[in-house]
What does this fold into?
Amino acid sequence: MAARIRSRSTAILLLALAFTGGAAAAVVLRHRVVAGALALIGGALMLWGWYAADRERTARARFAAMLVDPVFDTSILAAIAWVARTAEPAVGALALVALGTCYLAAYERARADALGFRTFESVGYRAARSALIGLALVTGWMSAALSVLVAVSAVAVAVRAMNVAVQHRSSPMTATGEPATGSTP
It folds into this structure.
């Protein structure tokens, strides 16, 4: 008997994962436009899943949403890097750099959350990331779209670092010089 999915956000996010996997497979099979369409649909479903998880306000739904986000980036960007490695090495390298900056931005947010700092990841950032990947595949403008993705992710890293620094400087310190929350980076 199949397990029943009780959470609407989990069902949406699983569907997003299916489209993301299909997009990665289409990239590897060199069906660029199909991959782009699947990536755009998967990205839209991922955003809808984030919205549904936010409305459900459960730890399980939020955790599922946080897992799907890097899987989307990794599966599609790694597939692009793999396919482009011989014919277009610059695009392959750019895809890997984009993957690295996306991961750095996600790590920085997660680390700041774990240390007790207030963080915020807008829908706009998630939408821009998934749309840039999908549009790169649909249009074929890989270098341009991946360069913009690197820039957007780098700006997110800088803004998050500045946000944590401002919060850290404005927080009361203990006698040992550590933040009053008890957390240390």
Summary: The chain has six helices and no strands. Helices lie at 8-28, 32-56, 59-87, 89-114, 123-139, 142-170. The mean pLDDT is 87. Residues 59-87 form the longest helix (29 residues).
